[in-house]
Amino acid sequence: MTEPSTRTLADALDALRNAAEAASLEQQAAVREGEALAAAVAESAEQAYLDWGEQTGHPDPQAFFDAAHRGRRWRAAPTALLGQLVLNRSPQAANYAEGLAEVCRAAQTLGEPNPRTVGNAAVAAAAQLAALTPPPMPATTRPEVAAMLRALNQSSRDLSSLDLSSLDLSSLDLSSLDLPGGLPGITPGLRPGPAGLQPEPVEGQPPPGAATSSAHPAEAQQPATKPEPKPKTLDELLAELDALVGLTAVKAEIHRQVAVLRVETLRSKAGLKSPTITRHLVFVGNPGTGKTTVARLVGGIYRALGLLSKGQLIEVDRSELVAGYLGQTAIKTAEVVASAAGGVLFVDEAYSLAGDQYGQESVDTLVKEMEDRRDDLVLIVAGYPDPMAIFIAQNPGLASRFRTTIEFDDYTDEELVRILQQMAQAADYDLDDGCVVRFEAILATTPRGPMFGNARFARNLLEAAIGKHAWRLRDIDEPTVEQLRKLIADDFDEGETENEPPVMSHEPAAEDESAKLEEPTSEPG
After folding, report:
1. What does pTM read for this prediction?
2. Which end of the chain is more exposed for a tag (fewer CB within 10 A), N or C?
């Protein structure tokens, strides 16, 4: 169990600002992330908005609730800036993640703390820190699925090892191809392969292969700047995808997309005709089924294939695209798209943009931006299956650009148990057998309609259990490590425990999509 923070939220935000500066991030953007995450952690505490406003300089109560709405997804997922640092293997990612975790710990002191805020803080802090360690590959996989994924992966990889020396390519103009390594057997220094798999140029250093100028011998003798770590490779990202709990059909479809796009890239690099394949995707499924987690991986995978320059994920909903007046929505949407340039823009509950002129203005802007930035932007729209089908069909500009729909099935009871165990492990808690039995009993009596939260349901139960655990230990001055870690079956009982203060919750029944801990990235063991 995480000890309560001794820092105020203002102190934690200052430390986060310093971590952002060290990581070359925009400091104000980092502070906005921290403020939103803190509001999401503390929103169930009575009068929390007062302390939050005083320490952030935003006294308007509506600013607190707007921030909580934005930050709720990060209670179970790494923030956008942290995700970008992790994807790029930044050496500052650990400091920034710890800064976010400290913001979570400080947030539980806002207002009148209650057990729920303790649980929120523990799970949210674990979500940020867990982003630093990629999940291990699952120990077992269904044999037929594993064979299919290997075949899809290998079919296109083999193209990169073809010897083209026997082909007459004398008529091809290769001068415009920026391909370090060259075509095998043709030109040293030009070998076809996804541009995204090559190291990026380091600022202040000449590009690979560039001649060193003799005009400044003193500068040439200076030690080279330490190169930035390489971004995650395609194999590493696919391994993370394969390690997700469940989602067998989703994994197979993403591997198929990778195979097709890799072949398209290699054919283009070799000077062959290649059809233009749309990269935009539609994700359909109930809440908490892993859509945001997979979208984040898709951004990294497309970068590794050389299809995107950055690969970051920007997640938004209607409130972050639509403004209060006609004309302003186009500007607001364009600004959001600009922030996602080079990566993936993930629009959750995209069907909420249908039905009024403000939403249509946003859709029209998205279609225009998709065309203007078609070489360096991927749009993924997500939501419930039926509303998404109607939404795409009613917008011709979208229908022609979204050819691939990926369905996310609900998790089984067995998968939800594994998800709960992973969440608890990530937050440094131990579940005994009684906890699992109690959780299974709760699942057995919970309706599984469209509003069922899947992994989010497990996360909410764990947050509540952590809060009850903290309340249980309130009179123990020096609990042992075992007591601090161990959750018991009674912690998962629904309802308030004896003498426990009531929880003031402002959360809606259906939250924003979230990921990582909410949609875990690895199988246990």
Report:
1. 0.71
2. C
